[in-house]
Write a structure and sequence with these properties.
Layout: E1 5-11, H1 19-35, E2 40-42, H2 56-59, H3 69-81, E3 84-93, E4 96-105, E5 108-114, E6 136-139, E7 142-146, H4 155-163, E8 168-172, H5 180-194, E9 197-201, E10 204-207, E11 210-213, E12 216-219, E13 225-229, E14 235-241, H6 243-247, E15 250-254, E16 258-261
Parallel strand pairs: 1-2, 2-3, 7-8, 8-9
Antiparallel strand pairs: 1-14, 3-4, 4-5, 6-7, 9-12, 10-11, 12-13, 15-16
Helix pairs in contact: 1-3
Length: about 280
């Protein structure tokens, strides 16, 4: 067994279009999670800005560059409590905005990701689709991959990060009603098929008629649930993870008789159809 690291998920409500309030709430949570020994705390999609904007013009004032004022404040929080944070925000780049997630530590921004798969919902209706590939960040002893909400419905997303060496894949999300299947099963399946720790952190509360469903969860590399936040109340949940377990891709159940490796046993030469366009693609 290797070294173990405590991570926390913060299933919280978010105040729409109120960055100062949301940053204050993030600090309150980090104060609590760091007191419990959390090495990293993960917040929902758009936790800094809110999600249900109706026009680009409405959203722009609540978007910021990365790095920028919001990430500077997150850096101060991380430095104060000697920890790390992953949180969703709207990133502004010229006249474009991206639905983004940022990874911040005591020394500043470690990495950021722009949502690639865009549903027709909330800010994603007019945000620019992510223009950077999936990647993995080395953060101390852990290799962390990040994606956002609807990205989790595309198994290729987590698989790419697994192939790049991720120990932990996080999915900050804003799952609304009719997403119960994802909240119940997605973390477990992605963890199981990739032999990684997988953490989905949803929000709660109501924003412009959308009542977010909660159901956050972290699963271990076998697909078993380590911790979860059931229901639609605010909740902080914790899990202790050992990255060495995620790096043992060959599973030996009966030596010489039952051994599998879901990475080495892949047949990429048979998967060409995955990257071919389908009729109607733009």
């Amino acid at each position: 067994m290797g070294d173990v690291y405590r991570i926390a998920g913060a299933q919280i409500d978010v105040k729409f279009a109120d960055i100062p309030h949301n940053l204050k709430r993030i600090e309150e949570v980090v104060r609590e999670t760091s007191s419990q020994g959390a090495w990293l705390t993960v917040f929902p999609e758009a936790a800094i800005s809110g999600y249900c904007f109706e026009t680009l013009e409405e959203a722009l004032p609540h978007s910021e560059p990365i790095p920028g004022p919001a990430t500077n404040r997150l850096t101060e929080i991380c430095r104060s409590y000697d920890t790390r944070v992953i949180a969703g925000m709207l990133e502004r780049d010229g006249d474009r905005i991206f639905n983004a997630v940022v990874l911040v530590g005591p020394d500043g921004v470690i990495g950021s990701y722009r949502k690639i798969h865009m549903p027709y919902l909330g800010v994603d209706q007019f945000a620019t689709p992510g223009d950077r590939p999936f990647r993995v960040w080395q953060v101390g002893p852990l290799k962390i991959g990040m994606h956002i909400c609807y990205d989790g419905s595309f198994p290729e997303s987590a698989r790419v990060m697994t192939l790049d060496g991720a120990d932990l894949i996080v999915l900050p999300t804003n799952w609304p009603p009719k997403s119960e299947c994802a909240s119940e099963h997605l973390a477990n399946i992605r963890a199981h098929e990739n032999i990684v720790y997988f953490m989905a952190v949803n929000r709660v509360g109501v924003e412009r008629g959308f009542a977010f469903i909660g159901g956050s969860k972290i699963a271990d590399p076998s697909g078993a649930t380590l911790a979860e936040a059931t229901g639609t109340d605010e909740k902080i949940f914790y899990a202790d993870i050992d990255p060495e377990i995620a790096r043992r891709k060959r599973l030996v159940r009966v030596p010489g008789k039952h051994e599998i490796d879901r990475i080495k046993d892949r047949r990429p030469e048979m998967y060409g159809r995955l990257v071919e366009p389908v009729e109607g693609d733009k």
